[in-house]
């Protein structure tokens, strides 16, 4: 197992008032994302626990793109990864932001 953590400053607070949300499932080629509204509005943290070791640079690029696109201020993401591809990671993170904003239900 490898644990990774990324902290980013963001431009704006994520929309919505919901405190927590969870998307995905931990399975081969997939991941589970728990998102919590627990940080100051100008910060975002993504903690990752993955069985696929040695992909830190790819995770960094995917998380950087996600933060730039969504500006998820105030949110902490906890990811349990089962070897998901980068496009699946991006999809689950986007779903988590939409769900905590109150959309998609």
Uncertain runs are none
Mean pLDDT score, rounded? 93
User: Structural class from helices and strands?
Assistant: alpha+beta
- Strand tally is 5
Tell me roughly what share of residues is in helical segments.
25-40%
Instruction: Determine the number of helices (DSSP H or I, runs of at least 4 residues).
Output: 2
Q: What is the general shape?
A: globular
C-alpha termini separation: 33 Å
**Order of SSEs, N→C?**
EEEEHEH
Strand order of the largest sheet: 1-4-5-3-2
Strand percentage, roughly?
25-35%
Q: Over the alpha carbons, how many angstroms does the gyration radius reach?
A: 13 Å
Oligomeric state of this protein: single chain
Biggest sheet overview: 5 strands, mixed
Throw out a few tags for this protein.
105 residues, globular, single chain, 2 helices, alpha+beta, 5-stranded mixed sheet
Helix and strand arrangement:
Layout: E1 2-9, E2 20-24, E3 31-37, E4 43-50, H1 56-70, E5 75-81, H2 86-100
Parallel strand pairs: 4-5
Antiparallel strand pairs: 1-4, 2-3, 3-5
């Amino acid at each position: 197992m490898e644990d990774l953590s990324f902290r980013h400053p963001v431009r704006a607070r994520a929309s919505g008032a919901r405190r927590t949300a969870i998307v995905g499932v931990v399975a081969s080629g997939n991941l589970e994302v728990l998102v919590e509204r627990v940080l100051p509005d100008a910060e975002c943290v993504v903690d990752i626990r993955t069985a696929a070791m040695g992909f830190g640079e790819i995770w960094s690029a995917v998380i950087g793109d996600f933060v730039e696109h969504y500006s998820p201020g105030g949110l902490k993401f906890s990811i349990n990864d089962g070897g998901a591809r980068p496009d699946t990671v991006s999809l689950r993170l986007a779903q988590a932001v939409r769900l905590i904003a109150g959309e998609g239900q």
